[in-house]
Amino acid sequence: MGPKREAGGGLLIFVVAIALALVSAGALALASAGSAQRIRASDRALAQARESLLAYAASRPIDTRVGPGYLPCPDLDDDGWAEATCGSLGGDLGQRERLGRLPWKTLGLPDLRDGFGERLWYAVSTRYKGLLNCAASRACIDMTPPTALGTITVRDASGTAVHDGTLADPERASAGGAVAVVISPGPALRRRDGHDQRRDCEQGSCDARGRCIVEPPWNAARCDPLNYLDLAAAEDNARFHDRSDAAGRAGNADGFIHGPVGPPGAIDVNDRLVALSHGEIMARVMERVAIEVAQCVRTSPAADAAMPIAACAASPALGRVADPVMGAPPCSAADDDPGWWRAWRPFVLYARAGPAGLEVVDGSGLSLGAAQRFAILVTQRVGSCGEGRIECDAHGCKRAVQAARHAAGSDALVASP
Length: 417
Hints:
Blueprint: H1 2-59, E1 99-101, E2 121-124, H2 138-141, E3 154-155, E4 161-163, E5 180-184, E6 256-257, E7 272-276, H3 278-299, E8 309-310, E9 318-320, H4 340-344, E10 348-352, E11 358-361, E12 367-372, E13 374-378, E14 390-393, E15 396-401, E16 412-416
Parallel strand pairs: 3-6, 11-15
Antiparallel strand pairs: 1-2, 2-5, 3-4, 5-7, 8-9, 9-10, 10-13, 11-12, 13-16, 14-15
Helix pairs in contact: 1-3
């Protein structure tokens, strides 16, 4: 009976081991599914924030001085509102003020959280941040494509730069710096430098609503990026460098890295991020400029009598918008100095229709609208005549090609009946 009992005991141990293995595998599967769900929730929040920022840049209220293109400053004290200012135009002042939480109230968003229940963080390029003194600065109000380059370097998990903030060449703007970054901080961890992230409100550092009330706000654990953003071997997401002046631009190599970075069980960076590129934000801004100028032409008493100012050899009906057409309310594109229209004027073409009207087609030739009275084309480069986009003859313009809406790198066209 002894050997039988031993055999039975061995079988029981084997069955228990199998059961424990199955339970363990099930737990791992549930944990993995839960982690994937959290990551998906984080990515949804990041996508929503990204789209909201693009919409803000293109649709924010403008006047004859300050045009579209600006993004809000970060929220430094965790009250949901953007700060009024966040550094100088060149970026040499206020670097820490350009990294904080996403200002969800300013953007008109709900209290957006990642899959771990944390509010999103946000960094904005010095060239795109809103400034109180924009109305008095020609440099600040010039948000045209070759001028408003991004300044933030962003790396993938391998350390390869996907946005290079050191580039100052307008011809390489698509590979240049990001204009903003939104970050999901994920759960707290011990940073590579040994700092244990803690996210509480110490006594006296926050008010009853959780807003950081110390000065500067990052002296409170709740508002210190060190307690949310992580450190890789060569990139610290809790700080970055962005300068738009020639003297400091080389330092823009210090930017952000997308996680996860590190082996399973020993992750250095669990931050997830999305970047806003120069091309995608400029596509929205150029469309807004085209809409504003079309509004001026459509509502001006002088529009029917004013031919375009000659700028292109294709036709006398294709050129710059005449000054008498601009400036009368509700036109926001006035000839103020400084004013956003002065900066944008060399990038804008006015195509006046011939007797048969102007037809707008898509890239495949499908008609999108006939008998249009005129079209406004905002180009990427000064001196462009909309080659391949506008067809005109001696009698007027007959055809205009509408590129994919919000397509990065494409000119923006708006037509009006």
